[in-house]
Structures are given as C-alpha cells and as structure tokens.
Automatic annotation (TrEMBL), chain A:
<protein>
    <submittedName>
        <fullName>Transducin/WD40 repeat-like superfamily protein</fullName>
    </submittedName>
</protein>
<feature type="repeat" description="WD">
    <location>
        <begin position="264"/>
        <end position="297"/>
    </location>
</feature>
<dbReference type="GO" id="GO:0071013">
    <property type="term" value="C:catalytic step 2 spliceosome"/>
</dbReference>
<dbReference type="InterPro" id="IPR051980">
    <property type="entry name" value="WD_repeat_MORG1"/>
</dbReference>
<keyword id="KW-0853">WD repeat</keyword>
<feature type="repeat" description="WD">
    <location>
        <begin position="12"/>
        <end position="53"/>
    </location>
</feature>
<dbReference type="InterPro" id="IPR015943">
    <property type="entry name" value="WD40/YVTN_repeat-like_dom_sf"/>
</dbReference>
<dbReference type="InterPro" id="IPR036322">
    <property type="entry name" value="WD40_repeat_dom_sf"/>
</dbReference>
<dbReference type="InterPro" id="IPR001680">
    <property type="entry name" value="WD40_rpt"/>
</dbReference>
Automatic annotation (TrEMBL), chain B:
<dbReference type="Pfam" id="PF01805">
    <property type="entry name" value="Surp"/>
</dbReference>
<dbReference type="InterPro" id="IPR035967">
    <property type="entry name" value="SWAP/Surp_sf"/>
</dbReference>
<feature type="region of interest" description="Disordered">
    <location>
        <begin position="261"/>
        <end position="282"/>
    </location>
</feature>
<keyword id="KW-0507">mRNA processing</keyword>
<feature type="compositionally biased region" description="Basic and acidic residues">
    <location>
        <begin position="916"/>
        <end position="935"/>
    </location>
</feature>
<feature type="compositionally biased region" description="Low complexity">
    <location>
        <begin position="875"/>
        <end position="886"/>
    </location>
</feature>
<feature type="compositionally biased region" description="Basic and acidic residues">
    <location>
        <begin position="855"/>
        <end position="864"/>
    </location>
</feature>
<feature type="compositionally biased region" description="Basic residues">
    <location>
        <begin position="865"/>
        <end position="874"/>
    </location>
</feature>
<dbReference type="GO" id="GO:0005634">
    <property type="term" value="C:nucleus"/>
</dbReference>
Amino acid sequence: MSGLPKKETNVLKGHEGAVLTARFNGDGNYCLTGGKDRTIRLWNPHRGIHIKTYKAHAREVRDVHVTSDNSKICSCGGDRQLFYWDVSSGRVIRKFRGHDSEVNAVKFNEYASVVVSAGYDRSLRAWDCRSHSIEPIQIIDTFMDSVMSVCLTKTEIIAGSVDGTVRTFDIRMGRELSDDLGQPVNCISLSNDGNCVLASCLDSTLRLLDRTTGELLQEYKGHTCKSFKMDCCLTNSDAHVIGGSEDGYLFIWDLVDASVVSKFRAHSSVVTSVSYHPKDDCMITASVDGSVRVWKA
Amino acid sequence: MATEDDDDFVFYGTPIEREEDTISRKRKSVAEASGQLRTVPAHKQEVRDEEGRRRFHGAFSGGFSAGYFNTVGSKEGWTPQTFTSSRKKRAEIIQQDVTTYLDEDEKAEMVGNSLGTSMQFDTFGFTAAEIARSQSEKEQNQRPSAIPGPAPDELIVPATDPIGVRLMLKMGWRRGQSIKSSKPNAHYDARREARKAFLALSEDAKAHAPDSKDAEDAIETAAELPIDDISQLPKSTPVYVLNPKQDMHGLGYDPFKGAPEFRENKRSHLPGNRESGHKRLQPKKDGLFSFKSINVAPGFGTGALEDLDVEDEDVYATGYEFEAFVEEVEEPSRLAIEDKKKPSVKEHGSLPGFKAATSSDNQLERFDPPVVPKDFVPRHKFPVTHEVNRKLTEVPPAEVPPPVDNKLKVLIEGVATLVARCGTVFEELSREKNQSNPLFDFLNGGNGHDYYKRKLWEAREKHNDKTKPFFNEKVIPSAQKMTAESRGNILGEKPLQRTVKDIKTDVPATEVVNLQFHLSDTFTEPLSFVEPTEITKPFQHDPAKQERFEQYLKEKYHGGLRTKDAGGSSKMSEAARARERLEFEAAAEAVTQRKWGKEGQSSSQQILGASAGRGLQFTSGGTENTQASLAEEVIKKSMFPKREEFQWRPASLLCKRFDLIDPYMGKPPPPPRFRSKLDSLISMPDYVKAAKEEEKTNLNKFSLTQADEQNGANVMDVEENVEVENVERPVDLYKAIFSDDSDDEEESTNTNQPNDPTTKIEVANTALTRIVAGDFLESLGKELGLEVPPDQPYPEKHAKPQPTRKETAQEIQQIHQEKREEIDSNAHKDIRGSKNDTAELDHEIEKKVTKVKRDKNPSEDERSHKRSKRHSRRSSSSDGDTSDSSDGYRDRHRSRHKERKKEHRKHSKHRKHRTHESSSRSRHSADKEYGDGKREKRRYRD
C-alpha cells in the first residue's frame, strides 16, 4: 500500500473568502482554484507559489477545469456563464451564456473541443470550443433538479443531480442511463479504471456504483455531508476513497471494505474540494476557510 | 513601388495637416473668391468655405458639408456634448428636456403653441397675473437686484382686473370702496343680532382657533356696517391695515407656505393678535365670527376678499370649520347629548363634517359557551392502586435473554402473566407449592430469575395498560419503556402487519418476511416474541390438531428455534405433517389477517386459558422499531440504485466533437420517429409505397403550380443552370424515380392553382437534372445489357385510397417529413447493400450525377416545390403525346423487362424531359419515349 497523502506540505493562501474548487492540471504540476472572491488562481502547489490570477467572473467561481495541454481553462460560477480562458494571456477567449441559473460544474472533453457544463437550471449544456458559436451544441434537460457535477469520458457524459440520479449519456450508443440513488447527489467522481463512479450523496454517504450494471458496490460513511457541495475522489490506485466533511475533517476510506483508513482535520471549516494528483500521492484540498492545502505522502 | 505600397495600406483617421498647406489653400481661395471666380461661368463655379475647401463634394468624400467640413454640422463635430476631456473640469450633467433638442425657430413655434387662457376669458385674472409674474421674473434675471430669487408675489400687481372686479366696476363700484348694500338694512341688522345671540349661547364652550383673517374681514365689514349711511360710502380698508406685519420675517416670506395648517395655530398664539387695533371689537368677536362662518354667502365680503387675492387659499382652508359649526348650529342640543354619550367616538372616530351614527347595523354576534353537563367533574381521577403506582415508578428490570431451555422460558412467561394478573399472592403461592421443583427455581432467584423479573414487569405493564391505557401515556412518555401493544392501544393505531405490507409491490412479500425473520433471528433473537395476538381456533374439532397448530404458530413466531417436543406430531407421517404444515400456514395467515381487523381484547384471557407459552403479544416498541428500520434499510438498498435506460439522441456536432459516429446519423429525430415507425409498420409495406405516400403529401402540402411549357425564357434559364444544379443526396433521385403518374394526374386536376413564377426556374432545373439522370440510367441499362420488364404499375397504386388527403395540413406535413427521412435511410441502405443489382445501379447513377452537378444545395422546400411542379406540368402535357417513335420504345421496352423499378424511374426522368422542347436531340427522343410510356401505362390501367 502506497502512502496516503496525510502530511501537509504547503498552504496556498490568497483567496479571500471560501475556496470552492481546487483542481490539478493534467500533469499535476499546477493547480487551479476558484472561490467566492470571483477569481481563479493558478498555483504551483509543490512549491506553494501563486502564479496568476484570472479575474472576469462577476460572481463566485464554482468550478474550473483545464485542458490537458494546459492552454485553456474553462470556468463557471454564479454569474450563469462559462468563461473560456487563455491560460498564458489570462484573457477570456469566449463567454458561453445560456444557462438560466448558476453553473455548478464544468469539464472539458478529451480533445478540449467541447465544454460540458452542469447548471442549477437542471440542464447539462455542451458548448463548442472549436467554432465561434456561442450557442450550446446540445442541451440535456432530462434532470429533475439541479445538476451538481459532471464527468466526461471518451464517449460518455456522466452527471449527478440533486434529483438523486447519476445519469450517463452515452454518445456512442445514443442512450441515457439513469441510476437513481434515492439521495441527492452533489458530486460524482470516476474511478481511474473508468468502471466505477463514486457519488457523494447528501445523506452523508459516498456511494460507489458499478458503471456497467448500475449496482451499488459500497457505501462510505462517517463524514458529514448534508448541505454543501463537496468533492470526493479516488486515489490513483483506486484503493482508497477520499472525501471531505463539513466539519473540516478529511476522510480516507478503504475502497473495498469501506472502513475509515484515515481521518484527520484538514481545515477549520467545510472541505469543499479535493483533487488528487494524477500520478503521485499528493492531493489538494480547498475549504471555506479560504485556504488550499497541499498534502503529500 | 512606394505608391503601390501606399495603395495597399488602409489609413484610418485624419492625417495631420501641415500649416503651410492650409495657409496656401486659404490664400488661393481668397484669390479665387476675389477675382477668378467672376470670370468662370456659373455652372463651373465652386462653392468653397473660408479654408478653401469645397462645400459640395461627392458622397464618398462626405457629401454636402453644411458649414462644418465632414462633421455632423456643428463645430464640435462628433465629439459628444457631455464629454469634456479635462480631468479637473468635469463634464456637467446636463438636464435634458425637449428644448435641448429644438432649434430656435422650433422653440419659437413651441411658445406659440402653448395653451393658455386668452385675455378675453381671463375670468379671475390668473393668466394676467401669471404673465406679469413671468415678465417680472425675466426682468429680474436681466438686471440682478439686491434681493436674489424671484420677486415675492405680493409685490406683483396683476395687470388686469379679474372679471368680478370688472363686473363690479360696471355696476358702479369703485376701487377702494367697501361693498355693501347701498341702503341701510334694518331688517338685516336685526336678523344678524338675533343670530349672534343664539350662537353665543350654543358655542361658548368651543375654544376654537379664531380664523383671524376671515374673522377680521368679517369684523371689518361688521364694524363698518353700523357707521355707514346711504350717502357716504366708506372706503375699504387696505390689507396691510387688516393684516399688519407682525413677524420678523422678510418681506414676502411665508413661513407656512408648505404647511398652511400651522398658520392658524400660529395666529391664535400670537399675543398681539387679539389686542392690536381691534380692541373695540373684542367683545363681539366670537359672535361675529360665528355669524360670519354661517353666512359664507357668495356675495358677501367679496370686496374684502378681493384684496386678499393672493391669499385666497386661506379662505378655503377654513372651509371645514365652517361646516362643523353649521352642524352644531343645526342641532346643538342633540350634539351636546351625544358628546356626553359617546365621548370616545367623538374623540377619535368622527371626522369633521360627520357625526357618529346612533344605531349601527353592524352588531357583534355572540355565541353562548357550550353547556357543560351537570355531572361533569373538571378533574379526572384515576383509580390507581398503590401497587400499580409503585410498579410504574420503579425502574424496569433490564432486558435479559430468555433461558436456553424453551420449556423453562414458557413456564416463566406463564407464571409471570398469572402473577401480573392475580397479584403477588400467586407468586407466593406457586413458590411454596413448587419449592422442591427445580423448574421453579426462578421464583427464588435461581436459574432464569432475571428473565422472570423482566417478564413479570412486562406482564404487569401490559395489565396496567389494559385497565388504564391513558394513564400510562402520561406517566411513561418514552416509547422505549412502553410495550408495543400499549402504545398501539393508546394511539389506536394498527400495529405493523408483521411485515411491511406496503412494500409488497416492490419486493416479493415472502422474501421480506423471510428476511425479517432471519434478521430478527440474528439481531434481536432474544426479544423476538412476535406472538400471535389471538389464538382463534380454526381446528376446534380436533384438539390435538389445534394444539399442534398453536405450537406451529409459536414456533413460527419464535423464528425457527424449534423445540424438541415439536408439536407432538411424531406419530404422523412426513407427508401428512407437510400437508398439515401447509394447512397451518394458511390458517395462520387467515388468523393474522383477521386479527388486525379487530383489536384483540380478550387476548390476555385467551392466552392465560391456553397452555403456558404465550406471554406477550408484541415485542417492546424499541425492538420493533429497529426491526422496521432494518427492514426499511434493506428495502431501500434493494430499491436503490435503480437503473433506467432511455434513448438519448446526441447532437451530431457533439458526436463530431467527441470524435464519434453519430448513432442516429441519418435517422429522423426521436419524437416523431416513434410515430413514423408505427405508421410504416402498419400501413407501409415497402419504401416504394412510402415514397408514393410522400408524393401525395407533398402535393397536398405545397401549392401546386403549373409549369409554363411555352415559356422560352424559362427554358433558357434552365439550360444555363443545369451545370450548377447539384443532387446532394440520392433521395432526390429516388423521389424523381418513384413518382407516380396516376396520382400525379389526380392531384393536378384537384389543384389547379396559378403559376408561381419564382418556382418555375427551380422546377425546370430539377427537371433537367432528372433528364440527365434518366439519360444516364438509360445508357447504363444499355451498357449493362439489363433486361427491363415492361412497365407495370403497382397494384397498390390504384387500389389504394388516399387517406392522407383527409388529414390536417399539419399531420401531412409531419408525415411528409417522416417519410422523407425514411426514404432517405432506405436509400442509404439500398445504396450500401450491394446484393441486388438495383443498388449497384443506383450507386452508379448517384456517382455520375453528382459528378456532373455539384456546388448546390437545394433546400428541402425547393425540392418539394420542384417536385410538385413537375407533377402538375407533366399531367397537363400528358395529352399531347406523340407516338412516332414507338418502335424505338418497344426495343427498349423489351430490354427492360427485368427491372420494373428502373423502368419506372426512367419514365419519370423522361416525363420531365418532355417539357423542354429546346433540349438536345437525345432528350427529344427520350421525350417521345416518355409519351409512349405514358400510353403504355394507361393501357395497363385499362
């Protein structure tokens, strides 16, 4: 068993107010954070350096994602629009307007040609980055409630919603699979092998679903997650499940037997976001207390 | 080179002009203006500005420059008016109104248009006053005075007299004269005196604020009245005498301007008001005032009021008071009484001018309190015995697992129940009795004593519940200490039906039952006494069997812990036992079902009556709850996650961006697809038919136009456009191929609509396209040596009615769309499938056609238009067939006997072709051939 990132190595401070999202970039050398102060910040988490600030959002930044080639950022937030940024210049290339309400999550697809956003307006929208069109390519509005989180694979769009469903839109097959968990889902995360999806439900439970069958494989409990949008993720080896808690604790469960392997106080307040390094045993956590912490094994 | 470079650049902005340039130009212009121009004829003269630039120039260099060169016609040009570039001198916010945007002359016009009373109708002199005021204001502005601001109203005298003054002047009144009747009126005086006296009586208590001005007016006139005589008309007193300025405010300043209501207050408090200059009138004042108030006659005191012109608002301000007084005058006694009666109402209820009603319809309805029965005792007494009290207050013994020995357990329970019922005496008795019996050790603190204690407590509890259920509710609020039965009794609720019945729909009931029993076995085994509440005896005729049944029940509810003396049915055969078991199961089911219907009241007796073994009917509430929640959880787990699958259609662009093949490529959009599929399944055996259907709907949908054959120009156009025409998809070809003669004819006769000139060209285009395609087909057919069967109309073609005509336009449209899509896909299929030679041929055709014509995307509508056109044209010209080339046709006909479809296609091609006489030779022959085909077809029909 490789070491779990339990040692705090850096604290990234700069955000004023709550940090709502923290994301590693594709290779894990940098990370992006977004928060209530309407800014997106680019950091080197390993050295603890703040590199750049991206300002344009009119409201809080709820989610941010960077392309695999590190050239573009997409972000979303309370101002109902998506911003498509150029990383180096820090300029907004395009703004995608269309969501009727706050946008909760955003993701690039593999080729960074499409941005998929999940909104409080119960819809998923896919936006084209290649053309100059600012109209969504497609609007998926089968959800019954706010869509909280979205994940993309090569062929699928997976989204979790407060209506308790995790919906998989298979583009190749042209079908929609809806897994009703019975509890509001506020975050979904794909396992690294792509076979499972981890859903954080608002009954303070993380649920691991088998993607192919829709079977519930395991439930992870112990933390508090009742009213905040909080991230969860799996480690690189898919051996452990990591999730924050509303009391500032960080929980690490064993994937198979759902036992709490580790539990430690990471922040003084709600842990809003957890992002795991794509290769190393390293993770960043963001919290309402305004700090972003870097953890290493 | 340099100039070329300059040409390539695009310049923005105005280049800075060098000074000498402008100067020289100026000089030149001056020179021109002075001498040169005179020599030039008028039409060659140019208008130039002082800078020497032409005033009139071409539109591309700015057009006519009115005054300012290439600007909006103002000095500032395009510079925004509100913008001032200086940092220190900020732009002032300009209050904009209409006049901002008006020219001087427009403004003058506006003034002329403004509405106002003409002098002629200036009854009250307001307009004149207004004009005078504005005039003075203007003057004020022009020559600033020591006192800033507008001149006070008092200083401005109205320029004209009001109509009243003028009238009075005409009647003989002169300025400065007071107004009164010219002859002394004794009668009037007397009446006034009487009224004075009367009012003095009635309203002495009223200490109202004297309306000084009016009062003074009245005083003035009244004071003068006695003095005057006929010959000597008195002068009216000027206002400043009556209203001396007593305050320290500036001239014209009115502290009460915004709040006239305070004016009265102020005056009443002025100390000098009463004394100054009116002392002689003081005693009379009240009476006079009232008198004045009563008689606000229009004519009276006008003269006095006239002078107060500017303050006439005061006259109205006192209006309310007048009314109040009037009322009091009318019925003073009544009011006095009412004052006493309803002081409170008077104080804050009544408005001036209103009085409170003596009787109101709005009576409060009263309801009597409910009648308490005589025998009602307000305190509830509980017939609680001492013992029960003790028991209830004492801490319940801890729950202990029952002894392993089932017999002992049963015994303990039985005893406990009995003891609870009969009191501790029974316990003593049995203890004595069974001193030696080791089974009864539990009575003396031996084996199972704890369990006995618990059971006893429970039984007592239950017993108490039976007698005083409501008492329990109060004393034991916590559900944990309550047994399920007691709680059930209290709440009158239906106990859980042993298993959660309502989940039956989701999960097989038996499964749940089993599950729950297993659960209870594993988790709550020691307390799982889900005993049958009531032992009805379904096997009364057979006591042994009944006993076995009871035993069965017990076992059942004990959850599989089978006792060794299993029902005493050892003598029975295995098969019989099995059968009996089934029977028991059914009976138990029936019993339990029945049980929940009626609450078992005599259960305790029954249990007691029966052999020992059935102690409690329910487990304690707590365990029941846990069981229920456990079960719930299990159910939830089994219910969620629920997977559902839907069809979802990704946008084609999305597929493209994800680098995937659109799973729905070429398929119609999902919502209509279901219908279309259904339709096709029901009524469309093949796509040919579908095509036909589509043709029909097309005809229905679009207005049919008849192509003008004789229009040579059109034909020319057609020929020109042939090369650009592009058949984007093979659909078009198919449509052309599958056109149906007979239907077309019918349609055309149905819809004889005027020509649509705009679509003609398109029609012609498509027609030619088809001709070309048809030629290809023909030549291909020849090359391949295919034998095409004689043209044969499809049997459905004629037999089939046309239901679509009856459908609404919308439906037709929809279906049309669907069909189109369907054909589309079919076409794809056909083309891809290389099994049949038709497909191959089609493919060939498609290729060639597209090779010849490209770069054009005829829209759907266009295409359909074309089609419809084609049909109509064809039908109209069908009669003028020629038959000269029938031989050639025959030959071909023979060679084509295999491919009916193809034949059909060709026909359509040729038909189209027919319309263009000016086409090439080959086309011409094909045209003739078409005519033959037509005839042939008709023959078949006959």
